[in-house]
Each structure stands twice: as C-alpha cells, then as structure tokens.
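Reopening this one. Same input as before:
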Amino acid sequence: MTFHDGTPFDAAAVEWNLKRWIGLEANNWMNSSRLYAGTDIVDDDHVNVRFKEPVLGLLQEFAYVRPVRLLSPKSVSGDGSYKAPVGTGPWHQATAGNEGSAFERFDAYWGDKPSFKYLEVKVLPDSRGRMAALRAGDVDLIGGAFVSPLTATEAETLKGAGIDVVIDPGTTTMIMAFNTSRVEALRDPKVRKAINLGIDRAAISQVLYRGLATSTGNLFSETVPYSGKRFDVPRRDTETAKSLLEEAGWVGGPVRQKDGKDLAIELVVSEEQVPGSRSVAEVIQSELQEIGVTLTIRSVDHASRHSDIPERKFDLAFFQTFGAPYEPFGTVVGLFLSTYDNGVDGKLFIDPEHLDPLVLAAMSAPEGEMEAALQKVYDWLHDNDAIAPLLFVPGIWAHAARVKGFQSPATEYDMPYENITLAE
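Same output, byte for byte:
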C-alpha cells in the first residue's frame, strides 16, 4: 500500500504519524494519548503501540478525524507544519481554493472504489445559493449539520419542488448553557431549574426543525456509546417554575427582583452556528417573560461567537455536542473539564470543585467501571440542572434525482459518496 504520492504506507510512516499527536499533553483528553507508553517497529508491516494500562475505546479514538490522521511523511514541511493533504483514501486532491476543491478517484485505493471518477466540493456560504444551485443542477448534494446545513423550512421548500430530501436523526445535541461565573442568579440551582421548566422544548423543535427533531432531557442520544440512563424530557410547568423562583428569593412582577436587582439575563445566538436560533431565542424570551424573567437577545457572527464563548462573555448560549465519532469523551472532557483548553468551543458548564473530579474519574476508570463513572457525570449535571438539553439535531440532506443510493454518513466528517451511483 502507498500514499497518494507514492510514499510507502509502512510501519515507519505509521509511527511517524502517531508521534505527531499521541502522548502530547494537549491531547490527553483522549485515553490513548494519556496512557501512551511508547512504540516499537517490529517489521515493515507491524508496529507495537504500548500503553500504561488497557485503553477503553482505543479503536474508536484511533478513528477520530482530529488529531488522529495518517498522512504521507512528505505532506509536511521541514519544520513539521502541514503542507498538503496526502493520504491513502479513495480520493486524492486535484485542486483547492477558496471557492472549493476538486478530487480525483485514487485507483490504487486498497478498498472499494467510488463508482465515479471525479468529485467537486463547492463553497457556497449562503443557504439560498446552495438551494438554487441544487435546483439548477449545478450541484448534486447539499446538507449535513456542519457542512452545508439546511433548515427544515428549506428542506420543505426543496421537497415541494420535487427534490429528494433525507432526514437523519444525528448524534448531536443542542443545549442551552448557563454561565454561573457571569450571572449570580444562575449560581442557584433553583433558578436554573425554573428556566429549564419554563421552556417548551416541543415548541423549539417546531420552530427550528418543523417537529423533525426529538426533544430531550439528556446530554446524549441513545445512539452514542455510554450515553447513560434516560431522563424524562422536562415538561413546561410555569407554576412550578414560579414557585422555584419565589423560593430562591426572586419575587414581584412583571419582572422579578431580589435585593433591588431585576432578574435580567442575556442570551447569545449566532445564526451562522445554528440557523434559526434567533427565532428559537425569541420563543424562549416570550416563555421566560411569563415566569418573570427578562431575556435580552444578542446576535453575533461566527467570529464573535468564537471569541465571546471561550471568554465566558455570555449569560445563556446555545451549544452543540461534538457528535460521532468523538463521543462521549469529546464532549464530557472538552465541554466540562475546566482545566482542559478546547480553544474556541468554550465550556457548557464549569465547576472545578464538584464536576471536575467526576470527569477525571470517568476518564481514568477501567472498562468495567466506565459506564458507572460516566453515569455519575450525567447524574450530577441533571440533579443540579447544570445544563438545559433541548433537542437532538437531525441531519438534513437534499440531492438531485440523478443521485442514486444516497445514505447519510455515519459522522459529519465522512464524505457521503459510498453506495452512490450517478444516473445519466
């Protein structure tokens, strides 16, 4: 087997790739990196990877898109920085630019080859432009939660125009975060629970996904490994919500007060991150007003969100879990462990004293105790109303009539070319 550039895919290349990420402190949220003890080349076709103890989910972690990857050693510059995408996969890159990339079938691929020889990926930032291109026949496929997202309304429009639409249940959860470090009121679990009970999740699903999304009270979908026991979906209960706020000392109206301060909270939304989130925020704004909470909405672009969220410049904000193949540890560690720097993603909830020890215990638990250790994390989040899970994000795809055999990919990082044939 060779890489696209002819470089042998051998034990030396595998070891070189491993040492670019494994064992580095920045990647110790992965058990395989944290427990790494060394590598030994046995012969050209075999590498022994040694660990301090058995690694739960090792093969799953080795399938991650980042930081794990197998590149040709010639795909980096002399200083080790990334230069070109040279792998062993079914496609090799022919051209790349700001407007898109083109790929040609790699006929020396070791597995089943695609049925067509050429693949073009176009960058069309505007969803209306993507829809128009699909209807005009300029592109064959759009969709996915991250790649080229479609709203449910847009999907209905395309379906009405005779375009094939495919709905995938997905492995990502949409969650509303509480920032207890910025808003004193949110430090009280009773206030967080009142807000949780003040939200109508079915209404949010209807606004954002035309009822196509499943409401939830869980961090993860059952499709995620070790997703834990099922908690009931919180039902909107304004009377209980009001009682909880009263118990927390927030009284009066129409805006509740405590110690002379209004119960006023800001919700940060980004249409670029979650299309339609402004409309969802307006629904929540109206619902919380009924229980005496004033909610203001601040809309930001993607770049501003990427700076504000890690800096904790929000009261409430919408997050999404990482989804397959990174779960459950991608989200549990990345979005909850206070000591782990996850860059622009920010944190869903931070509690170094109570939550960090539970996350660390789950990371280091042996296989037989892993499920129970993770359940303690889920139980703590639920019992303390630390987060407000809203719904499972569906993947919505639309494709041209000539595309036959399309199936939603297993993850958002897989190119959905398998099983596809193109009718002439």
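So the earlier flakiness isn't reproducible anymore. For the record, DSSP finds 13 helices and 16 strands in the chain.
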